Amino acid sequence: MDYQGIIYTKEEGIATITLNRPERMNAFSPEMQDSIYRAIDDAAADDDVRVLVLTGTGRAFCTGADVKAMAEKASQSGGETAKQPEVQRVPLYVLLHQFEKPVICAVNGIAVGGGFDLALGCDIRIASDKATFAEIFIRRGLIPAAGGIYFLPRLVGMDKALQLIWTGDMIDAKEAERIGLVTMVVPHGELGNATRELAEKLAKGAPLAIKKSKRALYVGLENTLQATLDYASGINKELMAT
């Protein structure tokens, strides 16, 4: 299968999506987004895949939408796109949130705007010590509509989320780790190995229990204590029958 703007590999239970438009700092083009959706769908359907890793090439993880590429795509369509029914897709950050298997984001560099929010949609974030983060939407008179509004306060608390969103300030990897935005920070040259080590450990774990625990944790964020306990009890009964 042909993937544009990404490199997609599968090896020993680990599927890896590498954003591969370094000349555009891995900004989303329409083709790149389509490739990411298809790769995630493939990883979800493949029972041999136990873990999904998301990372980038070059000095950026992702800088959000490539407005120029999207405008060119619309121009090349000659208006024909408007005549055809639009395919409604679940937003990428929602798709990652709903993905049953663990998703590890290896943040190799700059993650801003929609790229920052893409990282937030992953379950675990391992950052290079060269990584930087910013919710830059405010600089354009906008708010984070790609997941930041939902994920940030749950990860770093309401006050820090407001500060990041209101200021659009860039923070480094060390600060991101301090406030709980990333799980761990490693030297840049060790990012691949550290990510691989964790991915392999998860890939060797009990797959059904890992899937169910991910869903239970996210359901628990929206439920009362009793409802969460009841939900977890039901899952354990299901698991014990396997």
Spans of 5+ residues with little confidence (pLDDT < 50)?
81-85
The proportion of strand residues reads 15-25%
Radius of gyration: 18 Å
Question: How many H/I helical runs?
Answer: 11
Report the oligomer: single chain
In sequence order, what are the helices and strands, one letter per element? EEHEEHHHEEHEEHHEHEHHH
Please give the largest β-sheet: 6 strands, mixed
Tell me how many strands there are.
10
Q: State the CATH topology of the largest domain.
A: 2-enoyl-CoA Hydratase, Chain A, domain 1
Q: Architecture of the largest domain in CATH?
A: Alpha-Beta Complex
Q: Can you tell me the number of structural domains?
A: 2
Percent of residues in helices: 40-55%
CATH superfamily of the largest domain: 2-enoyl-CoA Hydratase, Chain A, domain 1
Trace the largest sheet across and list its strands: 1-2-3-5-7-10
Which structural class do you get from the secondary structure elements? alpha/beta
